[in-house]
Amino acid sequence: MENISRLYSDRAGKMRKSEIRELLKVTQDPEIISFAGGLPNPKSFPIQELQASIQSVIDHHGKTALQYGTTQGLDELREAIAERSRKDGIDCTADNIIITSGSQQALDTVGKLFLNPGDIPLVGLPTYLGGINAFRSYEANLVGIPLDEDGMIIDALEEKIKDLLKDNLFPKFVYVVPTFQNPAGVVMSESRRKKLIDIASEYDLIVVEDDPYGKLGYDIPHIKPLKAYDDEENIIYMSTFSKILAPGFRLAWTIANEELTRKMIICKQALDLCTNTFTQFIANEFIKSGSLDLHIMKLCEMYKPKRDIMINAMESCFPDGCSCNKPQGGMFAWATLPEGIDTEIMFLDALKEKVAYVHGKAFCVDGGGGRSMRLNFSYSTNEQLEEGMRRLGVVIEKKLKALCL
Predict the structure, then answer these.
(1) What DSSP string runs through 208-233?
(2) Which of 184, 232, 316, 382 ranks highest by number of CB atoms within 10 Å?
(3) Contact (CB, 8 A) for 31 and 356
(4) Which helix (DSSP H) or strand (DSSP E) does residue 373 occupy?
(5) What is the C-alpha to C-alpha distance for residues 14 and 332, in angstroms, rounded to an integer?
């Protein structure tokens, strides 16, 4: 067909490629040290334990596990997640839980449920690119709220809400990644968590809490999720097995009140009918065996030294004027370079040195982030972390010298 584009919907014409997915294609060269993806380390996958879980599923549930399942998800897995969530302070039952095909499906479901063209979700500056893409696919007008070392600045959030209301614009929801945020790595303080709950109640807003990394803490005690403070049930909570078990399972879950859960199930029915039944059985068996918590401990023991290696190498290899947080958990560090450097433009220079990252603009809905980059420390070997920081330091030094000419 010569001109298929004339058949596309208006929405399809406005869809954008994922910056990270496109970057991952570029970085498949084995010589490139890539800090671009948000990938768990493949050496962390509990293959032997999963083999035992898989065999048990085949032996005891084979005919059921290989069949279609319900849209809401396997009853036993939802019960197991509900029990674990209650230990984190979340008041829920299995009826409040939906098993989704990764958190990306949950984000898409939120967009489908709440967003008309032009509607306003409030998001962090910076924020997770997958959330940005999901909401933009529904033609939303994303409005950014700045972050600092304590997460989203809630006073700035309230000020923005008031400004929007003055113009008769009512935001639909606030999207936050409050714990070891992607990409900035910061943690929202408890006082801000409570204040966000109050604001959501006062302005009748939904809060979408995305919590993929909450169990991956290295330097601080476990942090209660926002949902644990949610007395008025204004929060849609989502988390995933991708970062704590295996991303290839494509298993995640949402927790919400009865009305929101019912609506989200209807949305999901149109997307995939049901999440992969076989992997749901495997995950449930893995939890029942007592292996999940032990595996999470091993992940933290693996990732904490990798974070330290990256930060230490950055301090020794990057020139003066560069800054970076030291994340207390999660998988990412967020570095900011001196004035005059554009990390999107610099990416091509980095590829020549066989190193990759994600530039900061990808995460900022206001066009900011031009001097920043997201660096993943979980995937690379310890040697690659050191060498990759050295290569990046060389690239930055060259850029700074070029600015001085």
Answers:
(1) EEE-SSTT-BSSSPPPPPGGGG-TT-
(2) 184
(3) no
(4) strand 372-376
(5) 29
Q: Show me where the domains of the chain are located.
A: 4-46+293-404, 67-291
Burial of residue 257 (CB within 10 Å: 0-12, 13-18, 19+) is: middle
Q: Which helix (H) or strand (E) holds 372?
A: strand 372-376
As a three-state string, the secondary structure of 58-85 is HHHHHHHHCCCCCCCCCHHHHHHHHHHH
Q: 3-class DSSP state for residue 124?
A: strand
Tell me, letter by letter, the H, E, C secondary structure of 302-365: HHHHHHHHHHHHHHHHCCCCCEECCCCECCEEEEECCCCCCHHHHHHHHHHCCEECEEHHHHCC
Tokens of 101: 């095909």
Res 301 pLDDT > 90: yes
Q: May I ask the CATH architecture of the domain 4-46+293-404?
A: Alpha-Beta Complex (3.90)
Cβ atoms 390, 35 nearer than 8 A: no
Any residues with CB less than 8 A from the CB of 375 and at least 6 apart, and which?
35, 310, 324, 332, 333, 334, 335, 357
Closest of 113, 145, 139 to residue 126, by C-alpha: 145
- Rounded Cα distance, 124 and 146, in Å: 6
Residue 94: count other Cβ atoms within 10 Å of its Cβ.
17
Report how far apart, in Å, the C-alpha atoms of 197 and of each of 87, 89, 176, 185 are: 20, 15, 12, 21
Asked if residues 141 and 120 have their Cβ atoms less than 8 Å apart, the reply is yes
- Compute the C-alpha angle 365/213/21, nearest 5°: 50
Contact between residue 177 and residue 128 where contact means Cβ atoms under 8 Å apart: yes
What is the amino acid identity at position 246? Answer: A
Strands (E), 131-282: 143-148, 151-152, 173-176, 206-210, 235-240, 252-255
Amino acid letter, residue 237: Y
Report, at the CATH architecture level, how domain 67-291 is classified: 3-Layer(aba) Sandwich (3.40)
The encoded tokens of residue 35 equal 């800090």
Please report the pLDDT score of residue 18 as a whole number. Answer: 64
Query: Scanning the structure block, which residue is given the tokens 């950055």?
Result: 314
CA–CA separation, 311 and 389 (whole Å): 9
pTM here is 0.95
* Mean pLDDT calculated for residue range 307-329: 96
**Residue 25, both tokens:** 């294609």
